[in-house]
Structures are given as C-alpha cells and as structure tokens.
Amino acid sequence: MIKTLIRRFNILGGLFKGDQNKSAPKQVQKSIPSIERNSYQAKVLFTTLPNKSSILTESGGFPTSVHLGLLLTLGTKHESEACQGFLTSFQQSFLYKLSSASTSFLHSTRPSINFSFNQESSVLSSYSLAQDTEKLLNIMFSCLTQPYEDLHDSIIQGKTQYFLDHTHKFDLHHWIQSIVMNHCLTGGLGNYPYTQKDIKISGKDLNAFMNQHLWGNRLTLFAAGVYNHKEFVELASPLLSKFNSQSEDHNEKPNCYTPVRVKIEQDLPFNYYSLCFPGPSYSSSLYWHFQLLSDIYSRSFNSPSSLFFHKLANPSTDISEISSFLHNFSQIGLFSINCLGSNEHGREIFTTLAKSMILLENISENDFLLAKNTLKLDLFLKYEETGKRIEEYAKHFAFTGKVLEMKNVFNEIDKISLDEFRKIVRELIDADVSIISLGSNLDKMPSIEHMKELVSN
Q1: Does 432 share its domain with 306?
Q2: Which residues are 114's β-sheet partners?
Q3: Positive or negative torsion for Cα 212, 215, 218, 220
Q4: In angstroms, what CA-CA distances link 153 with 87, 146, 159, 385?
Q5: Among residues 180, 202, 230, which one ends one of the domains?
Q6: Number of domains in the chain
Q7: Which helix (H) or strand (E) holds 151?
Q8: Both 200 and 162 in a single domain?
Q9: In this structure, are 148 and 262 located in the same domain?
Q10: Which part of the chain is the Peptidase M16 C-terminal domain (predicted)?
Q11: Among 51, 178, 227, 320, which residue's CB has the most CB atoms within a 10 Å radius?
C-alpha cells in the first residue's frame, strides 16, 4: 500500500504557476478509500553515502520520492551563480542551511521521514522528520508549502545573509547523482548485482537480447575522457567523425569531436566509473527513464534526440557545447554505453541495461505518470536555474536544435501516451548497441592499444 501511494503522489502542483488548485488524479482518490480525502501519508527511508546512497521504501522497492532527490540537486551549483535567478539563490540558501545543520544526517542509517500531501492541491502540507533530518531539509519543505509567486521573494531575503555567513562548503551533487543512479521507476532495480528472482524476466529473453546487442556491428561511442588527455582525444576524433558522417543534417556541420570530459577526483566517496553510466555498484535505471522521456518528448515534435549521459559524465558540461553533433542521433538507431571500469564489468553492466530496458517496456501506468512528472520537474528546475524560457530550455534538454513554439511544454509532456512510450522503448531495444569499456584503474585511463582493441569490435 505504501509503495502504491508513493508512486502516485504528485508534488508538481505546488511548483508550477497556476497549478496550485489542481486536483490530484482520480485514481489516487479511488486507491485509498480508507484514508481521509484531504491528505495521505507516505513513510520513507533514507540511506546515504558511503553506504548505498539509496532512497528506499520499507519494502525496498521504488524510491520514496525522486522529486525529493531532484529537488536536493538545488544544492549543486557554484556559489558565483547565486545572483542568476531565484532557483540558484535557493541553492545557496539551501547550502547555507546545510552548513548550520547537523551533518550526522549524512552518516545516519535510514532515518524515517513522513510526508503528508494535500490531495486536492497536490502540495506538501505537513511533514515529520528525524531531528537531524528536520534541520537539514526544513528550508526546502517550507518553500514547497508556499505558492509559486511567493517563493522568489522568500529566497531573495536570505541571499545576502548567505554570503555574509557562508563558510562551510558542501556539494550535494555527488550524493544526489548517486541517488539518481540507484533507482528505477519499475522498482526492484535499486540494488546491484541483480539476481534472477529480483527481476521477472526469462533467461531466454535476456540471452536473446544480449546476443543481439552486446557487440553490435555498428559503432557508437561518445567519448569519455580526462581533462587534457591528448591521446584519448586523438582516438575519439575519428570515431566521432565516423558518427558525424552518418548524420542526415547537412545544413549544420557538427564538430569532428567533442568528448565529454570526466575529471578524476580521488576524494569521491564512490568509484570513478560511477561518474559515468553505469558501474557495477550502481544502477542508473531511473536515469534511463528520465532520458527515454526526453527522447519521447522530442520525437513528439518530430525532432529526434539521443539518450545521453552528459550530466552524469560531467555535470558542469554546458548542453550547448555538445548539442550540435547530436542532431538526428536517434535516426541512426544507436545509443552508447560508456563504462569506466574493467572490461569484466562490461557484460555485467550490459546485463543490467538489458533487464532495465525490458522491464521498462512493461512500465505501469502509475510509474509512467511519475516518470512524466519527474521530467516536468527537471525541466522546471533547469528552466529556473538557467533563467531561460521553459521552451528554450526544453529545446536544449531534448537536443532538438530548434526552438519549440508552444505555450505550455508541460501540457505537451502530458499528452505523451503510454503506448507511445512503450513503442519507443521497443525501438531502442531493437537498436544496435556497443559497449566501450575504458579500463579498471581509477587514477589513469587505459592504454590506447586496449581502447583500439575494444572499439574494433
């Protein structure tokens, strides 16, 4: 029951202007007849790095609130951006609040949190938290209970004080990134490695999928490299040139190469390969849902996009830097897996992907609704973060390369049907896929000879 409620709540109503009075979906009201109509509870459990960085339900299934996880990404941007839009100011205020909160939250084991959402307005109306957690998250929850129009003023008031008092630097990005990478909207994919009993998929189907795709005869490589790694760039250049030559867009010549750069940071509380997609200890199934919706969203405007992991590979990468050569990527019918880890991990990782994709094709109505809401929330956050019009950001998010002339992007996302979603998932399952494994060392890239051997397949 808890799992069902968690999957059906909608926090977005309180975040978007004009949605404050939006009623919750009828199916939610019908599904909880034993609970009062004005509110319902969802009990959630947290674990944090360096454990498994997972948000789990009591049953260990679907994460409590991907919305909460994405909202916590408000604390990920550089301090210098605090004056560029109210969302960035919120980020800084959040970090300031964090600096004065008890950091024991970051090392605690599954403190419980209770959310209560107003069913008529879909707005968080009350909450009860463990003591340490309450101090940490109070500012975010208090903002969520305010109307959209009031949010900006309340954040601006605390901005100056942040710059006067902020002395503790703490970047939530890696924590949240790990949370996002750990979950799948279909549930049951939050822990690695998977076992046959964890997923309900026949070995026959899985083997057929693996044999068809594991070493596909089409090459797809989006380079993952290290800053100033000359040899890697030299190798990536002809590979990306090969990709570019297949592009159907002849009006705008893309760059011959634009590798995503991954900076190795030894002090990270998880392995280097978790910065890219995915690692043997982390599942990025949730992110697949996220990017699949991006793909579906762009296709609904006849503007193909790709599944792409640049945010995980390098969160500071500007989308505009890499969007030019992603034109018509899905027209080629390819998507890539960049694996930073030993070659032995490659088959395990692809097995993970295969299971996730096959399960995704059978996504439920409730999970599909939550996935769309997740997409809308991310668009909203990035829109406010960049200070751009939502249509302008949506153009970059979907890598379409053209301006979308629409009044309400969110309404367009709502129009995406479950059948359309499943159809595109099937198209992606049927596409050729290659795995590029970049070695097992965390402090250096593999040899060029090793990489050439891998990509020759």
Answers
A1: yes
A2: 43, 128
A3: positive
A4: 11, 11, 10, 16
A5: 180
A6: 2
A7: helix 148-165
A8: no
A9: no
A10: 200-375
A11: 178
Structural domain span for residue 134? 2-180
Q: Which two tokens stand for residue 319?
A: 């989308």
Contact 414, 10 (CB under 8 A): no
Q: What is the pLDDT of residue 241?
A: 41
The DSSP secondary-structure symbol of 215 reads: B
Q: Write the pLDDT tens digit of every residue in 44-88.
A: 212 221 222 222 222 222 222 222 222 222 222 222 232 223 233
Amino acid at 115: F
Give one DSSP letter per residue of 160-214, joined into a string: HHHHHH-------HHHHHHHHHT--TTSS-SSSS--GGGS---HHHHHHHHHHHT
Does 205 lie in the same domain as 174? no
Are 173 and 198 contained in the same domain? Answer: no
CA distances from residue 39 to 15, 121, 131, 366, 372 in whole angstroms, order as listed:
18, 10, 23, 19, 23
> Do 129 and 18 fall into the same domain?
yes
Q: Which helix (H) or strand (E) element contains residue 417?
A: none
184-104-61 Cα angle (round to 5): 20
Are residues 114 and 50 located together in one domain of the fold? yes
- Distance between the two ends of the chain, CA-based, in angstroms? 47
Q: How far is CA 89 from CA 84, 86, 167, 170, 196, in A?
A: 8, 5, 16, 16, 46
Strands 334-339 and 432-437: what pairing?
A: parallel
Residues of the chain with pLDDT under 70: 1-361, 363, 367-368, 370-414, 416, 421, 424-457
**Same domain, residue pair 170 and 198:** no
Give the end of a domain, one of 180, 210, 227. Answer: 180
Angle at 280 between CA 107 and CA 292, to 5 degrees: 95
